[in-house]
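In the previous chapter we treated chains in isolation. Here, by contrast, the input contains two separate entities that must be folded as one system, with a combined length of 768 residues.
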Amino acid sequence: MSIDKVRLTRAYLSRVAEPPAPALAAFVDEVGPVKAAELVRAGRVPEAVEGQTSARRGEDRAEQDLRRMAELGGRLVVPEDDEWPEWPFNALTLAAANGLKCGLAPLALWVRGKANVAELAERAVAVVGSRDASGYGQHIATEFGYGLAEKGIVVVSGAAYGIDGCAHRGALAAEGSTIAVLACGVDVPYPAGHANLIARIPERGLVVSEYPPAHTPARHRFLTRNRLIAALGDGTVVVEAGRRSGAKNTAASTTALGRVLMAVPGPVTSASSTGCHELLRSGQAIAVSTVAEVVESTGRIGADLVESTRQSSTAIGPPNGDAVRVHEALGLTTGHSAEVIAVESGVALSTVRALLPEFEMAGLAERVDTGWKRSHVTAGCGDA
Amino acid sequence: MSIDKVRLTRAYLSRVAEPPAPALAAFVDEVGPVKAAELVRAGRVPEAVEGQTSARRGEDRAEQDLRRMAELGGRLVVPEDDEWPEWPFNALTLAAANGLKCGLAPLALWVRGKANVAELAERAVAVVGSRDASGYGQHIATEFGYGLAEKGIVVVSGAAYGIDGCAHRGALAAEGSTIAVLACGVDVPYPAGHANLIARIPERGLVVSEYPPAHTPARHRFLTRNRLIAALGDGTVVVEAGRRSGAKNTAASTTALGRVLMAVPGPVTSASSTGCHELLRSGQAIAVSTVAEVVESTGRIGADLVESTRQSSTAIGPPNGDAVRVHEALGLTTGHSAEVIAVESGVALSTVRALLPEFEMAGLAERVDTGWKRSHVTAGCGDA
């Protein structure tokens, strides 16, 4: 099967169902994308898939979409590509398998920008927050965007007004890379006031979306999109969030995916920081005041140690024994960070990161203040 | 033994050694205050006590001190008095027994103000922070002082410039009670700029100190004093603290005593909030943005429920079975608050609060996000 054929097929599939479409995703996994597309077109699919695809199955604009992308200097990245961010999206698949709403990897990713998606996602942090940001929040988002980019960390955000825009701009100002994940087609400059920003990002980074070209934004698409922002970062920093900010949705996805959630404190007299303080107070988020603390919290300090392991394992996929080794490396009484577990088990950090939430769902591990530990049930007391 | 004789003796003892004097405290516990004072005066004491008392053992100004206090409308409160804050100070004794530096109850408490010490300490929260407070910190300290007092909660602080002063003033503005714990004699108006404030506090609250009249403040006395601030509150709120603020010392005492430590977030651009953010980031403190959150964090919501139990138990002291009942009421897998444990065990909240840190030291209980639980060792897995 040629990659071009697969790409054309996935371009069709990416338009045929509104993400997230779990039944279609499962069907594609089961029979492969090409066969799945054939059967969807023919309407010969299981009922659940039919429900998700019947409305748009005749809408085959894959060739035009790919041509339009090429004109814009863009492309469609598919799971069969080397640059597919396999490990970042793995957590989504696992989360979906565990019934989490925020789960499910995209069927394909529409991309503008020359950078390799997987490479950019290797060392990335999401920086998100309110559109209606205060001067304080805008200042911090810009500083964090700049500071992270200066350290070679890619800034992932949603290109919205307020915090998102400041984070992207900060990264660009430091001549760093940034990824904007849109809730519409990557050829749709939304919000309009950020058309220039969105046009600039592909020069040094990526504008990505699971929505096909010309797709317009919609309320539910922002929520659906947020899981990709959370998945592409090693962690998420909420700079400012009001009580009802959409950033809290990204925060929830971050936690559900087993990523590090961070929140920036602010004046308690500011409604723009209420959401951040709620996340801190509930213990969901770690407080971060500086870029150095973000780096420390996302555990990138020991990253170089496990870099070589990660590379080889990414290439060949995890051997069967990985899960056992990772589980054995879990602390019995105190939690270990994913980095420590990776070093101790010799299993790639990305694999460790993907396995930990799976263990959690299975009741084999739990998150504590200091990282991950075995659940007591499995710590030798199960039969006591 | 008449209470007057005991009081005179403890007045002598409170001047004879520089607190904290663990050897002297243990000696007083062993032989009683009157006998201890006799032996100290005669120099017939164990070597450790001799080291703590030899320098000042001839300095007997007990009668003058008590007279001076009476002139000021003050008094010396001793452990033999009904108004001795037995349970708040119990945690200090336990901490000392466990080798914690911040431990050790005072030998006596010099007091100005008509209120009953034990009654005021029944429902109190410490509000502390930097002397060099920002406008933001001063605003919050005043608001918290006012808001807590409005809810009938006594505000404990150190009468220093900055946060302390604002907290006291806020409480007074709400016509509530406040306790100022000084690092000098209660007749010494320190800091000088707070002479009026310190003179006003006894009208509605208390100015207290373990240092005898005319004792001047000294650097180490502030640190020694801080443990009493922590002990007199159900919890401590750090409103603002720089990286090297003395408030961090009070914070450490609070945690060591098993009290709730809270910190107010602030702008990360403000050096005055750095200490608060460190406490939040390390997980030592819970974030509090409002007075309601302080009340919630200190678990006062269910306080009325256990009030009657507390009263009776305070009067008769804990029966031997209390420790067993409290331990049985601990959660096996999830943590319970001290309030819940008190209700479930039928043991007075104060006793529960005093026992929990003791259990922790003995490895019988541990603190988790949600409160206290049994340590795994004792949860049925010990022999597995």
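The CA atoms of residues 79 and 193 of chain B lie 33 Å apart. The domain at 111-298 of chain B is CATH 3.40.50.450 (Rossmann fold). Compare these points with the single-chain example from earlier in the chapter.
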